[in-house]
Amino acid sequence: MRLYFLLLNLIGFNSCQKDIVVKGLPYDSKPIIECMITPGALPKLFLNRSVAFFDPRVYNSALVIRNAFVTIQNDFGTDTLELDSIKNLFTCEYEFYYLGHQMIVENSDYQLDINTEGKSYHAETNTALSKTTITSTDYTPKFQDIYGEHEGVIVEFNDIAGEPNNYRYQMDRLIDSSVTYGEAHVYSLCTFGSFFNVKEVGRAVYTDTNQDGLTQRIVVEPGFKHKAGAEGYILIQTIDDNAAKFYDELDKQKLGIYNPFVEPVFLHPIQFEDAIGVFGAYVFSDSVLYVYPE
Question: What are the counts of helices (DSSP H) followed by strands (DSSP E) for the chain?
Fold first, then answer.
């Protein structure tokens, strides 16, 4: 009887293991275009190719689309952007982008044109955006959102009355290799204690729908870890409608990936045909010094 039950358990154990080969479906790669312009800065455009989920190409050097012809123009002339790169001191990987030579000006219409791999892409934006003013900042050790319970940076700022507005949070900080990011606790492997600047942009887009002219209050979970006394500078971006639609859709897609109980969201072309991305504009509020209390 003991031998019978032993054999039965062995058979049951072996029957629970099965190797399944997953064949990838045909995948149509698309350009990924990200170009956010702001007055007083040179235009910068990131141009990469999308790949299938299990594609082994994961590094920037393998994803960047080279040899594209990129121009940005307004009433004052045309700027030709050229491929450039800079080392990201947090990821220790080079970032590739197309950089212009003429400063973006305010209150102007801009047109973006990209020619690459036998196809053309066109989009437009306008830099006539109103900057907001940060009125106060605070901190909470606990707040609840759709991602769970977190600590949060609290920011209040004034909405510009009489016009629809979209906002994003940003914090600029100096950190070193002891500072980690996210729940995976990733940190820089190439700075060896030296300080370098990081820009943390909030994933959520905030609008003034039904709150025109009122004080806006947002709570943002910091991505980079910190200690009491750590300093950063908070800014609020005012972004245009196309940028707001794209980044809101991107945020919902991330939520769908991380949460199995949320309906999947797929990025749809908003400005470009047969490409994913955004050509948008933004302006900054004045920066405000922020000191973490704990």
Answer: 3, 16
Query: At residue 273, what is the residue type?
Result: E
Chunked mean pLDDT (size 10), the chain, 294 residues: 55 66 81 97 97 86 96 97 97 97 97 96 97 97 80 96 96 97 92 96 93 95 94 98 93 71 65 92 98 96
3-state secondary structure of 172: strand
- The Cα 269–Cα 136 span in angstroms is 37
Please compute Rg for the chain using Cα positions: 23
pTM for this predicted structure:
0.87
Helix (H, G, I), strand (E, B) or coil at 255: helix
Reported as half-sphere exposure (CB side, CA atoms, 13 A), residue 45 has a value of 28
Tokens of 47: 């141009």
Residues 6+ apart with CB under 8 A from 224: 173, 175, 179, 180, 181, 198, 200
